[in-house]
Backbone:
């Protein structure tokens, strides 16, 4: 009976994995076709011979590598700032005691319930008053701390950092920031790995806010640069899908290399000893 249950679970997991991977395979298939081939019924599930040609066309018709560098700069800078400020705030909420702590944390959680679309107009108004419209500062600084990251680090620190360790550090004369930097931060590494991947992917895939803020094509992110593939009267879908495939590959590579840290960050914070 146990073997049958294990076999059923493995079969279910295998089917779930195949269903999860199929969209990526279908993206590869569509990127390797000509525009006329994608309208065939029934569609062909075999990879075509136009992939390299479509990749060359995407690179020729867009400032792909320049936009890739812009996106990397924004995503990496944003992620580093998020890790620092969110870990600092999360540690403070978890292990420090100060006046108004409960109210501030409740207010922080309340901001997570506000749809991001409602913040677009006031955020743009603020960026305009600061003179940041058209600059990378408007893409990086407003998002250098977020409610989810602070909540995530706070919960992780509460479950994994013992108070006795912090008390011992205080007795040894460590300052609060030294305790955070030398003791708490190394313990947070699994949670920070998850937050880094989550923040990097969010910044990499962001389309709406760069579309509103950036007004110079030389500063376009990769998602904005790929919009140049759309024609006025027609759309070459294989080229668009090829551009999407090229933009997705760095995230897939990143996930493959950091998948262990991602899973560890999720499970470690959920297990109490």
Residues:
């Amino acid at each position: 009976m146990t073997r049958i249950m294990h076999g059923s679970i493995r079969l279910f997991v295998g089917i779930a994995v195949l269903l999860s991977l199929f969209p990526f395979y279908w993206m590869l298939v569509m990127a390797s076709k000509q525009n006329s081939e994608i309208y065939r019924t029934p569609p062909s599930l075999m990879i075509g011979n136009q992939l390299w040609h479509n990749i060359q066309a995407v690179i020729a018709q867009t400032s792909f590598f320049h936009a890739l560098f812009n996106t990397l700069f924004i995503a990496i800078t944003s992620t580093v700032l998020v890790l620092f400020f969110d870990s600092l705030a999360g540690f403070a909420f978890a292990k420090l005691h100060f006046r108004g702590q409960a109210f501030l944390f409740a207010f922080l959680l309340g901001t997570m319930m506000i749809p991001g679309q409602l913040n677009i107009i006031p955020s743009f108004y603020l960026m305009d008053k600061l003179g940041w419209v058209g600059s990378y500062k408007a893409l990086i600084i407003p998002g250098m701390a977020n409610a989810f990251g602070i909540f995530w680090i706070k919960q992780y620190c509460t479950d994994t950092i013992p108070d006795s360790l912090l008390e011992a550090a205080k007795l040894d004369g460590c300052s609060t920031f030294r305790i955070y930097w030398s003791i708490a931060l190394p313990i947070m590494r699994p949670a920070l790995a998850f937050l880094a991947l989550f923040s990097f992917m969010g910044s990499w895939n962001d389309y709406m806010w760069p579309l509103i803020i950036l007004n110079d094509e030389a500063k376009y992110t990769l998602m904005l640069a790929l919009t140049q593939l759309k024609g006025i009267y027609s759309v070459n879908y294989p080229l668009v899908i090829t551009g999407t495939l090229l933009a997705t590959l760095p995230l897939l590579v990143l996930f493959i290399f950091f998948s262990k840290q991602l899973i560890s960050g999720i499970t470690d914070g959920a297990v109490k000893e």
Remarks:
- Residues 55-268 form a domain with the MetI-like fold fold (CATH 1.10.3720.10).
